[in-house]
Design brief:
This protein is an alpha+beta fold. The chain is 47% helix and 19% strand. The strands form two sheets. The chain has a three-stranded antiparallel β-sheet with strand order 1-3-2. Strands 5-4-6 form a three-stranded mixed β-sheet, with no helix packed on it. Helix 1 (3-13) packs antiparallel against helix 2 (20-31), helix 2 (20-31) crosses helix 3 and helix 3 packs across helix 4 (54-66). Keywords: DNA-binding, Metal-binding, Repressor, Transcription, Transcription regulation, Zinc.
Length: 142
Amino acid sequence: MSEVEQAIAQLRAHGERVTPARRAILAVLRDDSRHLDAETIATQVADREPGVHRATVYRSLQALSECGVVTHTHVPSGATIYHLAESAQQHAHLQCERCEKFFDVPADWLDAVAEKASSRYGFTVDRSHAALLGVCADCATR
């Protein structure tokens, strides 16, 4: 079963409607491996489904996130980026503070931090929710 089919099955299991807008959002997230913000997703959805309003895309992204079909990551540039939940669970994000380039890293790189947070504070870390900031090698040499 494809990621989109799994997402649709999950929506139905939550009693959510599967609309053309939601299908288009899922297809955009499947087809574009970049880190997409809501505005970019809305633009690509409009290309696939011309009758879908931007506000519908924003509301749908919220609903898809609440159902766990889509995850979002807050980044310092002020945007929020979205992924299908299946692909997001496999990685975390690093972002260069200077050039804003993203790097996907295996989620298990953060295991030690998550374990310490859990044992010390009883805190569960959501590895996909925020990007870790730093300076990339290219910017460091400039």
